[in-house]
Amino acid sequence: MLRVGIVGASGYTGAELMRIIWNHPGMAVSMVTANQYRGTAIESLYPSLGGFYEGEFEVYDPVEIEKRCDVIFLGLPHGESMKVVPEIFDMGKKIVDLSADFRLKDPGMYEQWYGLRHECPGFLQSAVYGLTEINRDLVVSAAIVANPGCYPTAVLLGLLPLVNGGFAEGVVVIDAKSGVSGAGRKPTLETHLPQCAESVTPYSVSGHRHLPEMTSMLERGSSENRVGIVFIPHLVPMSRGILCTMYVPVNKRLKRGDVLDLYEAEYGEELFIGLLEGGKYPATKAVLGSNRCHIGIEVSGTEDMVVVMTAIDNLVKGAAGQAVQNMNLMCGLPEETGLCGPGIFP
Amino acid sequence: MLRVGIVGASGYTGAELMRIIWNHPGMAVSMVTANQYRGTAIESLYPSLGGFYEGEFEVYDPVEIEKRCDVIFLGLPHGESMKVVPEIFDMGKKIVDLSADFRLKDPGMYEQWYGLRHECPGFLQSAVYGLTEINRDLVVSAAIVANPGCYPTAVLLGLLPLVNGGFAEGVVVIDAKSGVSGAGRKPTLETHLPQCAESVTPYSVSGHRHLPEMTSMLERGSSENRVGIVFIPHLVPMSRGILCTMYVPVNKRLKRGDVLDLYEAEYGEELFIGLLEGGKYPATKAVLGSNRCHIGIEVSGTEDMVVVMTAIDNLVKGAAGQAVQNMNLMCGLPEETGLCGPGIFP
Amino acid sequence: MLRVGIVGASGYTGAELMRIIWNHPGMAVSMVTANQYRGTAIESLYPSLGGFYEGEFEVYDPVEIEKRCDVIFLGLPHGESMKVVPEIFDMGKKIVDLSADFRLKDPGMYEQWYGLRHECPGFLQSAVYGLTEINRDLVVSAAIVANPGCYPTAVLLGLLPLVNGGFAEGVVVIDAKSGVSGAGRKPTLETHLPQCAESVTPYSVSGHRHLPEMTSMLERGSSENRVGIVFIPHLVPMSRGILCTMYVPVNKRLKRGDVLDLYEAEYGEELFIGLLEGGKYPATKAVLGSNRCHIGIEVSGTEDMVVVMTAIDNLVKGAAGQAVQNMNLMCGLPEETGLCGPGIFP
Amino acid sequence: MLRVGIVGASGYTGAELMRIIWNHPGMAVSMVTANQYRGTAIESLYPSLGGFYEGEFEVYDPVEIEKRCDVIFLGLPHGESMKVVPEIFDMGKKIVDLSADFRLKDPGMYEQWYGLRHECPGFLQSAVYGLTEINRDLVVSAAIVANPGCYPTAVLLGLLPLVNGGFAEGVVVIDAKSGVSGAGRKPTLETHLPQCAESVTPYSVSGHRHLPEMTSMLERGSSENRVGIVFIPHLVPMSRGILCTMYVPVNKRLKRGDVLDLYEAEYGEELFIGLLEGGKYPATKAVLGSNRCHIGIEVSGTEDMVVVMTAIDNLVKGAAGQAVQNMNLMCGLPEETGLCGPGIFP
């Protein structure tokens, strides 16, 4: 039984890690830290964990981490993870970092988008970008995994087969819709129920921080840089879920069957990806609470544009679920351990 | 005081017409028909109208219509409006039809999209497409106005300045999000709260009936047919509101100020259009219950794509509100009569 | 045209006052203050008011108030209203205060529940408790009206006929359900959409501040003090609306018709009260955006308990709407001016 | 591995049974029937089950049931279960029936409330009412378990300690709030999102079918019949969850600690019951997707009324979860098998 430490556990990804790991036959949470909530009962912040987790949030203490934990998940905000990764790495413990600190390879790009100088750029090259279905081989042998953002997960799982297959060409429009938990646990006017109930609205229109993470992965796939993206996220009045509708111009006429073949070749054996049949489209509710990504495909009448639609639960496949999936691989466990099971419906 | 008849009044547009007209100083509802609910108290279907409308839904009867009404709104489903328009027209009464029956000029296209042979194609040419801000001059002298669909209203108000200005070129992606009332009052599994709460999902991906209505208006603006559209609507867990995010490739580099100038030239004097300043984006909640359309504009970093975002209340500017706006013009009243006032917030 | 000043206008009641007064033929907002938002455009906080109110929030300044306003609404938090009421009163301007500062007659009780010493207890006796339907005669001649809280409005309109009629006896259970806007505009964890969506929960179980306001009015009705109340409010995942379900033990067997007669005698002529027929129950949606209170009545099989159910919009009849209703009376205008019209549905 | 048949599996309880059993180490679903959906892929009705259940709904066929199933859950509507119970019983298979058909001991009472003559009244006495925490000993040896209704589960778990302890006396007011999935999968106007979003409303005020189920259990506890109940359910705009607020007059002064002692004596060892500490109140979200019942307790200032608040997920502890809990006991498995794990939050 692996003893799991969650550093920065008071946010929604921390809570979701606790929920998932509770049912994991090979892991058990042994320590949760949250400096701000030091001494507070877990149940007090998350009544849903009452009866399951009796402990308290502790202050981060490397000595305790070293002694009481085998593997570490970091649920810290960006800027904080990079402060603790070197010392936890030195303990020889495997790390899955859910922040943005190790997702970009280029420290300059990190500084540009996050407004902070990277404190341990030496780790950027060895950290593996944990989009599991795509980077599985690298994840298996990684010491540090940078867990993808929720939007990039939904976007890249949908786009990469077309991009890597060389079919996408031109500007891909990505229209993303997210539930409010994507904005985190901190209350703001934008997430205050009376403001956001009965409302849909775009945000970060002029540039969302998840952009470079997406473009760098897409560029890898498209060596000649033939694909550009426009990405606009929207806030939708629900707690969880991301739906991405992606409009992909293609460089040859494709029928739906052609595209489906491509996706089946890529994902046919994947446990956590569901390719929907013709005429069926993903809905966030159909993946609520599950680690699955549903993908629907449609081709425009003129056969020169493919519409790829993906749905994930932003806190599971878009965060804590994929993190556990990665840790399973890093620890030699079957990838799906603790992650199976259908989501909640309705 | 104009005596208003609402034929097919049991649906949400009928109820919304009653709500709006109650506050209209120049109109009063004198008769509401709904064959299915003949004899049912209005309040019984719409408790919100209790205390305001004491009457009952009546069966449609042309003799009564002729005697008791000066002007007519048709809230019937498509296929039904065309059965009554000729006889009401013959009575010399002005008509605003909220169905799709008179929106397309070409009866063949109507048959193709609605699966019905048009029963009075002779009226198609004279019926005016009531997108008020664009067709105001025609509406003023119309006898029959075909009130635009909710999606076309939000789409065309957003796109026409760029298209008519000759800037749009290529495939415009229209990603639309709608509240559930857009699906009407009839309960279905798709609109059953446990199915659609906490869910976002695309629908009608392979072709929505509002498409020909949009393309025919856009073609008029773009004489050389340079603009194509891809349109995907989504169902969002809220009652009212439409948000359209439109990605418009343009044939010359444009800055945000250039685009704004274009829109201000077109809409600067319009009472029901709000152009948002830089960094502000439309939200459906900000127009809830009002006849306004909010428009936000952003330009991509490469300056070759303009993103236009529009928000309307699908039942007001997208249906009953615009219908009253049109009828005001047809009857020589100030266009905004009965329609002013801010929407509900929060 | 009365020039209206709204002091403390940045909260939801301030915004709602602006919405309502915009359509009021005898009032126009001439000044809105909000020290915290001094210099901020109204539209910037409330996009729904864009196109209607071009101005900015100003800092509170008695000289400007005196010069530019005829009547004053106070949307300040409790503790703040009592600081400005004396000086505005001295200007001879009529005041409707929406805070709790003048609702209780007893300064000791105020101090006990609000934890503050009252700064102008001399005004408590002359301030009229503005539950309009009950205190209309007093409101007409009042200089200062203390506008009732949202819960007390829904509770008292429902209970007073039974209590004043001498029928209620024993402990009345009041189970109240409120939308989240009742908690105000300030974001908290409790009002953060991911926390409160898909959730119902009781709060303030051991004593809500609206209790003394309710009990003092009920005691007046029940001279022998035969009625006690237990009041538990609940938070429900919606923006607006209050539903109160009140279980009233009665001292003689009553049939539904008897109770209805009692309520019709009291409210039969009231424009803003709707008594529902047998088998119909109030729903918050049916009064959304309107100044009406819907009342449903049921009698238990044993005929010794009456269940009274009331629904209001907490921001209209529970706040800004009733405030305007009171000011109309204070200024000699027809009570319903600017307040008519059905609410939004669906 | 027990082979599980679900008869009447197309409703929400059927889907929830499939979700739960998928993670159950000792059970596997071997057959699901739904005459209306014969031949329809499970995934087609429940996309959330896609990738987990590949099969189809079959027509009910006793021969197949006998051959392919070891134990049976009945998800049929009332009136249908009693038609198949005798023949499945004769096969010697254990049955948990989720309908109301076997919950009441008295066939006359069944006929009175459900309007149907009971077709196999001989089974009523032997069927065990499966409120597990209360009737555990009987469930262990039962052949047929009548699974409690969702409301009775939330009500009885909250009330029985006080009633059985002899403390409750008089009329208990039960104010219940339910998410919309409690109304089942069939779309109606009442469950149409535009009608019920942003609305709270009471229903079945003059008598809900769950009443006799509650009263018969409470009478058993209170031998002298000292407790009456008034029960009013409300519809709340969310998918899942029941919150019951129960106002219990008591026959001696009790402090919160006294009541808590009573509940701890009863439930202290229960895995699926969470007693909340002072000042904490149950929220439906805290039990979403879990088999737990949270109970909060408060005592009125006068110490003669206890307020008990309970929250459950209506589809889990209120239906499918408790059904599996019962079947575990009937089959000699640890009661909690397949049911552990925290719910979804947020």
Distance between the termini of chain A: 34 Å
Q: How many β strands of chain A by DSSP?
A: 13
Strand and helix order of chain A: EHEHHEHEHEHEHEHEHEEHEEEH
Radius of gyration of chain A: 20 Å
Estimate the global geometry of chain A from the Cα principal axes: globular
**How many helices of chain A in DSSP terms?**
11
Biggest interface: A-B, 50 and 50 residues
β-sheet strand percentage of chain A:
15-25%
**CATH-scheme architecture of the largest domain in chain A:** 2-Layer Sandwich
CATH class of the largest domain in chain A: Alpha Beta
Q: Which fold name is given in CATH as the topology of the largest domain in chain A?
A: Dihydrodipicolinate Reductase, domain 2
Oligomer class: homotetramer
How many domains of chain A? The number is 2
Biggest sheet record of chain A: 7 strands, mixed
What is the CATH superfamily label of the largest domain in chain A? Dihydrodipicolinate Reductase, domain 2
Derived structural class of chain A: alpha/beta
Low-pLDDT segments of chain A? none
The level of helicity of chain A is: 25-40%
Biggest sheet: strand arrangement of chain A: 8-9-7-10-13-12-11
Mean pLDDT of chain A: 96
